[in-house]
Amino acid sequence: xxxxxxxxxxxxxxxxxxxxxxxxxxxxxxxxxxxxxxxxxxxxxxxxxxxxxxxxxxxxxxxxxxxxxxxxxxxxxxxxxxxxxxxxxxxxxxxxxxxxxxxxxxxxxxxxxxxxxxxxxxxxxxxxxxxxxxxxxxxxxxxxxxxxxxxxxxxxxxxxxxxxxxxxxxxxxxxxxxxxxxxxxxxxxxxxxxxxxxxxxxxxxxxxxxxxxxxxxxxxxxxxxxxxxxxxxxxxxxxxxxxxxxxxxxxxxxxxxx
Length: 258
Fold this sequence. Notes:
The chain is 43% helix and 15% strand. The protein has helices at 13-25, 54-67, 69-79, 86-99, 111-133, 155-165, 212-228, 236-242, and strands at residues 4-9, 29-35, 46-49, 137-138, 144-148, 171-175, 180-184, 189-192. The strands form two sheets. It has a five-stranded mixed β-sheet with strand order 4-5-6-7-8, with helices on one face. Strands 2-1-3 form a three-stranded parallel β-sheet. β1, α1 and β2 form a beta-alpha-beta unit. α3 runs antiparallel to α4 (86-99) and α3 (69-79) packs across α5 (111-133).
């Protein structure tokens, strides 16, 4: 009996891990794993909706961790890349991981392993950039607010960094591309969704949401940034490699009209 199926899940990482659990448990021949928001059924394959089950997801998570913590990190980071067909790629990677006695996470001769590692590294680079490039602005509600627009879904990955660095402040980092943010309330981080009328970039145009002094601080920082630059030593190409232009509209030292 043909047990080929497309698994449809809710888009969460726990939902994906639940899909992996179900596929193993029911010995499903997985044709694809798709998010419900972008579901595209195959012509000759049945689809099954997978309901997220935290305990099943934990069992897969712990099983992978026992095999290789490094592989676990690569899987999580690659998942956050939101790359097309990444779920099926990850599922095949996980099957290889459990099928082999030796560690596969360093076997770059394997196309699947190599692709997962490359995706994980790309997401890792974006994570570090966001940790460096986030610029907060103080709102009238005494919340430090920042907007970002990363290539990958890195908000869950940068949460720990900012919880540690700004543990005594209320802050909110909002991903304008994915329309959700993380809010720190001095005790923990929660996911929030906002109805933003515009992107709060660090522009020279003032916004009533922020305190007046905020713009004075930004001007001081921008002037300091300019004064410490040695014009004769500026290398625009190298600078753009380290600070890509797509981030400039969120950097107070790159103030511009937007």
